[in-house]
Amino acid sequence: MNGIVNVLKPPGMSSHQVVSFLRKQLKTRRIGHTGTLDPGASGVLPLVVGNATRISSYITEHEKTYVAELTLGITTTSQDAAGATVDLRTDFAISPLDLADAMGSFLGNVSQIPPMASAVRVDGKRLYELERKGISIERKPRDIQIYAMNIIKIWNEDEEDLSFGTRVLFKVVCSKGTYIRTLCHDIGEKLGVGAHMSYLARTKSGPFSIDKAFTLEEIQKLVELQNYGFLLPMETGLPDWVKVKVNPLVEERISHGNFILPEHILDVPSALTVGDDVLLMSIDGEVLALAEIKKSDQLICQPFRVFKRKERG
Question: Does the pLDDT of residue 218 top 60, yes or no?
Answer without folding.
Answer: yes
